[in-house]
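Worked example (supplementary).
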Amino acid sequence: MTALLRADGLAKAFGGVQALQGCTIEVDEGSVTGLIGPNGSGKTTLFNVMTGYERVDAGDVFLGGRKITNSPPDRVFALGVGRTFQLTRIFARLTVLENMLVPAPRRSAAGRRSLPGAKRAAPPDRQRAMELLDFVGIAGHAAALAGTLSYGQRKLLELAYVLIAEPAVILLDEPAGGVNPSLINHIAGRIRELNAGGTTFLIVEHNMEFVMGLCERVTVMDSGSVVASGPPDIIRTDPRVLDAYLGGSLEDEDDVTAG
Amino acid sequence: MNTGITWRAGTAAILLAAAAVFPLLFTNPLVTNYGVYALIFAGAATAWNLFSGFSGYISLGHAVFFGSGAYTVGIAAKDWHVSGVAVFGLLPLAAAVGAAIAVPFGLVALRVRRHTFIVITIAVFFIFQLMAYNLSFTGGSTGVSAPFLNWQAATYNNPFYYLALVILVVTMGLAWLIRRSRFGLQLRAIRDDEDRARGLGVRPMRVKLAAFTISAVVTGLLGGLWFYYLTQVQPPSGFDAQFDLSVALMTFLGGFGSISGPVLGAVLIEPGQQYLTSRFTNGYVSEILLGALFLLVVLFLPRGVIPTAAERVTAWRAARAAHAPDPLPADAADGAVAGSGAAVSAGAEGRPR
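After joint prediction of all chains, the assembly is encoded as:
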């Protein structure tokens, strides 16, 4: 397998805090990769620099061999990298259906080598939007203002409107955080289905059951760099991981502050 | 929903017909004068709302476009010796100047977010007012003037009235089309969360600048019309801080981000303001009242008359529907939203139009 999304030696400091330091991570095409680590280990910062929300101090980000380091968020999205946020960010004063129609169609820049699996898409239409709302299970709320949705439903809406542009890779920031158990299973099922259809995922999540059950590969971060990477069974028993993260109880990391 | 659309279209047709016959029923020029001002400000508030209401970026510098439009046609008519009805042919120039100013103005001001944006628009406003006082071709503090058109006094106001009405109707149609379009959706997404919209491929600068420029074109055009109506412009009347506050207040009162709100606000406020200005020549009475009204609206009616009224109607309908025997389907994905059916109907019908 080849790496679809790759970060190479990323460094990012906020004032005196080194959020990322020599951070290298590979997300194989067609995989579901988990990203775990204690709060403050740099997971969300990594998401932010890979999607253009923050600029890196050093290092590079590649998407299918193309350098996308410090590209603005709209360009990163157009090239095929979608993401969700830890604290959901939906358009509260638009209806659920209108939220679905905001994303721009994904484009492959003319004259350049297109990304694997990339195809030129028409602007999102209502029918496709309704299909996706149905897929995540909130089609019944299509006409409601998005601000009236529950927290879990917002997570589903965020996933749905990222999907409408058919990104090659989707970065999910705590998709199961603050969501009830039956909905967690629902989200996991949807991710499996999408992955079977060829979508690559990188998932930050504190819910170990969710990560270990879903991901074929898990990367562990601590203090801004990757300390281990491998299949869930190996990661579970890796002494460095136990030391950095899993030492205590697996389930006590459920706060919602930046990770 | 269909009955709602029919009802709305019917109301719009009746109001348009009423506006069209108004000068024929009330022939007193003192009365039609109020009509001309109300329509000019209804158009200006609609144009302002098309940018500020949709994008959430409050501009307090739209007088820049209004004044520039006025000065443009005034100076052009004088320098090129255009007179009589032909002066109306210069109005597109006022619109073009509005656009020509909006692009660089927007490229600078739209780089920053909300509050800083407001401050920059105010600063640009003062720069333009100062330029009007000090540049050689703007006539300093005496400004620019033109001869009155040689029309009969009794019907002098009517052509201005109908031209302003046409501009208003076209601008409202434009606002309606934009609101329904993908462009309008992107503007409203920017209003809710600009960074998130950006992460979904929306290019905020392009979208905001386009709306800002469209808004400036209409405002410049109205400034040109206003100049011919008054046949004079001075720096403090063309570049008038009260213009900025007025269009914002009218929009907030009627309904920020809605289509009919700014028009309602203008029709409610502008005649009163004109009356007070003519009644108390020292001027500050209307300004004090305008300021007080602004405070009251922001404190007690922050969403405006039309969205608030629409909400009441929806709540009343929902309450009536709740008594109906057929229960609403419970379709919440996680079953956590109590009364989600009512929320759905509130969302569908309670949106500002």
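Two points are worth noting when inspecting this output. The beta strands of chain B are 144-145, 232-233. Confidence is low (pLDDT under 50) at residues 326-353 of chain B.
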